[in-house]
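README: folding subset

This subset contains proteins for which both the sequence and a predicted structure token string are available. Records are stored as plain text. Below is the entry for Serine hydrolase (481 residues), shown exactly as it appears on disk.
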Amino acid sequence: MPVFEDLLQRDALAEKIDALFHERVEQRATPGIRFAVFDRTGITFEGGHGHADTADRPPASHTRFRIASCTKSFTAAAILVLRDRGLLSLDTPVTHYVPALKPTLPEGRPEAPTVRMLLSMAGGLPTDDPWADRQESLSNAAFMAVLESGVRFATAPGTRYEYSNLGYALLGQVIEAVSGERYVDFVTNHLLSPLGLHETGFDPLSIAPERMATGFRDVDGNWLPLPFTGPGAFSAIGGAVTTTHDLARWAGWLGAAFDPASGGEEGPLSAASRREMQRIQCPIAPEPADDIRLKGYGFGLLVEHHIRFGPIVSHSGGYPGFSSHMRWNPQTGLGVVAFENATYSGAWTPTTAALDLLLDRASETGRPDDTQPSVVRDLSKGLLRLLTEGWDDMVADAIFLENVAMDRPYRERATELAALRERAGVLALDKLKILAADPGGADNGFGRFDLHLPCAAGEIVAKVLCGPPKPLRIQSITWRL
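--- output ---
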């Protein structure tokens, strides 16, 4: 599992990453930006560009920014703290805790969304970013009045993904109803303080002006400073104020739940519950152009399974005056957080590009012989023997599961392989590559693997799928030239 110090040409890599963020200021996407790169050991390097406020102070290590919807990870963790203490059930309808909500779908037999549905953005409520982002300081009494007058449902609860801030505002009310504490107090007392996140809070007006970034809006090429709103009934959707140091520590702690060397159980929420946050709970259809196999919302976090890098966990934040993004790869522990002080400016763009650079370099740093399990190398040697020395039933029996001969007799497979070998010509055995085809899977993803063997006629590719029984053997294989 690489750390940043292990990566090849890390100084040049750091310069390249820093340039991604500097470019945002040069392009006037934002007045200022602050970022931090982290691994299993903590923050490895950081930087800032532009100005953080109207006094043109640069964004520094401990400058605080609004992180908007990245706050939802704190809200989800707070719900799981209460669940793990036996104080609530995720499958209880939210109306048990917030009776003012009036469900309307399915028509004629309306159902209330459960706590689990709201956590995973499957509560049936409509997307509401522009409206909800202006409700932060709403009082609880005013929020109840909104609910009692009726809110619209877009779909029947539990039927599909739709991003809802209102759903997370309801979860804030659940936390208050169950714990007896204000939302901001519960998160502070039971998550922030135990983890030492002392630069994270919910009231920007309580922070010294020189330590608080100003949010801006672009008006005819000029940056117009925006006023702050204070904590209220919608703080649970996006009210947190923090530094890159604290948010990188938070993200690193969440990601450490997948690291067996970390001990896993430190902190106020178990490793199992943190892993639960980072698993797909409600699927989202990937865009056709995405390099994503699977995509979905966990609990307070977005989860994607990249075709090259395996699972990537993230969340974005957009608020009047601010944009934020946190992103990490649980397999490697590498991650990036970044803040911008412009309205909905898109901090995810440079952050995503930065993590891709890190993961690209991490994949180059590890040598194949270090990552392939020995049993996969043995299976590959057996396949090469069948290809280069001719078919041998004893070799085949050693590497294949029993279904292989049943699905297609060995004599047919032998004929196919002999014809492929003749068409291929001279083989470049010294250039054989064994590539994992299941990023995110066990054994470094080698439960599925591909063989790539250059030859005079091009390249032989074998796609291999191993079966469930141990020891590992092959249940299907396809060859092509």
